[in-house]
Structures are given as structure tokens and as C-alpha cells.
């Protein structure tokens, strides 16, 4: 019965049936037809005004609620404040499989030349490393290989937060010198486990209100969700998206939980306002990955990472700057 009434109502609504294109036409369509224009109102009372004394990126209003008629468009003024040298957190996440030995040697030499000083006077810098899950078939589990997979190398591991975000570049460089490469067996690496931990763990030290950049450098392809079972490692449990670092900063659930999916990483990086920069040697591995992220950057790494500074400078100063400007105003929901 209700359907019939609705149908009847729709067929006799002369105001809608007139399909008036203007206010005047609408008013003349019949008794009871009216056109009411309203000023755009921001209904959320929790919007904060821009404070230019705060040296961080701000946008106002943060949230706007409006009602639209079908096909209606409205303009909204959005103010954006982007300090030229706002606070910046830079976390370098590096593949530590054996092919990255020359890359690590080069990064050690560049430590104090990292470009953070060029783009911010209030920066922190941190460092994490990853290889893969320490389980067969990803890793050679023979005792001597577990101890030292290659000459002059460290035991294999999944992810370790080596240097949480700190302000002192000299300490960062000194800590980096102690690092040795590691290794594992299968070619794709477990970097997705590392990205997830770097995004969700408070121990990394991301600061509230600063720009968060995550540089991900690798020469390899990556394992992704379901590989825990697909490669016969027997890991069926889905990733719970939580932080699982021990007191030494090591990820301790790697052999218990599967790798995360790409959509999971996109969501978690977004939730934590982290912009990924992929510095990779094999462009094709990462090319399709980057297009899933609303804001991300990619650069082709030399086999020895000798151009990593150029990739970072290019990504920070040029490409990301353009994208951040182009992303405003935010999408109206
Ligand atoms: Ca290399
Ligand atoms: Ca591997």
C-alpha cells in the first residue's frame, strides 16, 4: 500500500514534474511550488581557526556539512596555511638483504648530508631495516646460516626499528655506522611487514603536527597478503594491524601473522598521515603500487643507492610540493 501511495504522490507532484530550470519557472509551476536559496553554512562547531604562530600545515575549516539538491553545485572557501619550513619527520626504511650491501655502505657515507636540513629547521630523522620472515622457505634455517647468512653479516630478521626519530643527525650517522647487512633465501622481501610496523608503532616517534615521510628503499619485489600461505610457510593468521615490537625494536609476530595487503597499507599510512616515497631499483615492481596511494612518490634507485639523495630531494621539494598544493580544496562529501 505504501508503495502505491508513494507512486501516486510522485505522479501528481506538479512542482517536480515541471522540471523548472530557474527560480521564476519553479514559482510559476503551481501552488505550493517554492524555491528557497540558503547560504552555505558550516555546521560543525569544532573547526579550529588557522594559527599562523604554529609552524605547521593547517587548513580551515576542517569539516563542512551541507545539503545539496540533485545536481546543485556550491563553492566553499578553504584557507590553507603551509609554512615554508614546517616540522618534518623523515624515517628511512631500508631493505637489508645481501644485494643492498653496497647501498648501505653508501648511505653510511651520506648520513649527515641527508636533505632534511634543506627543507625544515625543525626535523627528526630515523632509520629502520627489514629482510623477511625468519621461517622456511623465505629464510635458510640451517644453524650456521641463521647465525650468519653471508660473510660479515647479521642474522636474518623481519623488521627492526634501529634509530627512532631523533633530532641529532650526528648521532643518527654514528648509529648507522654500526649496521651490517643480513640476508635470506627467496627473492621477494618482507617490506610490507616493516611498513605496517613503521606506521602504527608509537616507538617510531612520529610527532603530531609534523609532515611524516617514509622513504622505502629496496632492490626486490615484495611479499603481500596470502603469501604466508602461498609460499608454504604455513602462516594463515591475518595481520592484526597492531604494533608488535619488543624492547629492542624488533617485530616479533612476523612468523605468526601474514603479510598485510596493499589496501591495508594505504589505509594505515593515511590514518597516520604518512607519505611514502619509494626509492626502488626495479621500477616495474613498485610502479603499480604507487598509484594506489593518494599521495606517494617513486624514484629509480641506482644499484648502489648512490642517487638516493637526489630521489629524496626530488620527491620532497618538487613532486610532493606540487601534489600537496593540488590536493586542496579537499573533496566535498
Ligand atoms: Ca645494491
Ligand atoms: Ca625473501
Automatic annotation (TrEMBL):
It is a single-pass type I membrane protein. GO terms for molecular function: integrin binding. Residues 22-331 form the Integrin beta subunit VWA domain. SMART domains: INB. GO terms for cellular component: cell surface; focal adhesion; integrin complex. One of its GO terms (biological process) is cell migration. This is Integrin beta. It is found in: Cell membrane; Membrane. The keyword Transmembrane applies. It comes from the Eukaryota. It holds the Pfam family Integrin_beta. Keywords: Cell adhesion, Disulfide bond, Glycoprotein, Integrin, Membrane, Transmembrane. It comes from Poecilia reticulata (Guppy). The lineage of its organism: Eukaryota, Metazoa, Chordata, Craniata, Vertebrata. The keyword Disulfide bond applies. Signal peptide: none annotated.
Amino acid at each position: 500500500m505504501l508503495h502505491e501511495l508513494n507512486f501516486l504522490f510522485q505522479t501528481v507532484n506538479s512542482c517536480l514534474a515541471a522540471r523548472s530550470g530557474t527560480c521564476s519557472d519553479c514559482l510559476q509551476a503551481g501552488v505550493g511550488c517554492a524555491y528557497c536559496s540558503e547560504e552555505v553554512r558550516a555546521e560543525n562547531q569544532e573547526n579550529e581557526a588557522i594559527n599562523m604562530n604554529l609552524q605547521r600545515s593547517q587548513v580551515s575549516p576542517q569539516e563542512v556539512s551541507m545539503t545539496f539538491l540533485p545536481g546543485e553545485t556550491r563553492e566553499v572557501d578553504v584557507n590553507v596555511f603551509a609554512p615554508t619550513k614546517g616540522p618534518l619527520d623523515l624515517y628511512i626504511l631500508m631493505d637489508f638483504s645481501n644485494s643492498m650491501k653496497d647501498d648501505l655502505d653508501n648511505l653510511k657515507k651520506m648520513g649527515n648530508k641527508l636533505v632534511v636540513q634543506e627543507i625544515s629547521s625543525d626535523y627528526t630523522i630515523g632509520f629502520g631495516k627489514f629482510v623477511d620472515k625468519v621461517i622456511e622457505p623465505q629464510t635458510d634455517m640451517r644453524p650456521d646460516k641463521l647465525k650468519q647468512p653471508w660473510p660479515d653479516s647479521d642474522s636474518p630478521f623481519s623488521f627492526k626499528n634501529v634509530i627512532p626519530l631523533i633530532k641529532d643527525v650526528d648521532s643518527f650517522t654514528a648509529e648507522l655506522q654500526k649496521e651490517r647487512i643480513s640476508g635470506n633465501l627467496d627473492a621477494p622481501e618482507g617490506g610490507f611487514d616493516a611498513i605496517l610496523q613503521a606506521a602504527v608503532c608509537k616507538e617510531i616517534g612520529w610527532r603530531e603536527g609534523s609532515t611524516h615521510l617514509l622513504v622505502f628503499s629496496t632492490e626486490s619485489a615484495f611479499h603481500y597478503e596470502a603469501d604466508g600461505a602461498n609460499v608454504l610457510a604455513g602462516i594463515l593468521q591475518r595481520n592484526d594491524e597492531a604494533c608488535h615490537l619488543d624492547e629492542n625494536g624488533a617485530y616479533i609476530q612476523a612468523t605468526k601473522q601474514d603479510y598485510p595487503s596493499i589496501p591495508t597499507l594505504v589505509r594505515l599510512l593515511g590514518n597516520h598521515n604518512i607519505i611514502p616515497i619509494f626509492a626502488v631499483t626495479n621500477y616495474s615492481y613498485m610502479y603499480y603500487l604507487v598509484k594506489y596511494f593518494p599521495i606517494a612518490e617513486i624514484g629509480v634507485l641506482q644499484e648502489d643507492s648512490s642517487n638516493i639523495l637526489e630521489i629524496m630531494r626530488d620527491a620532497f621539494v618538487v613532486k610532493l610540493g606540487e601534489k600537496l598544493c593540488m590536493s586542496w580544496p579537499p573533496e566535498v562529501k
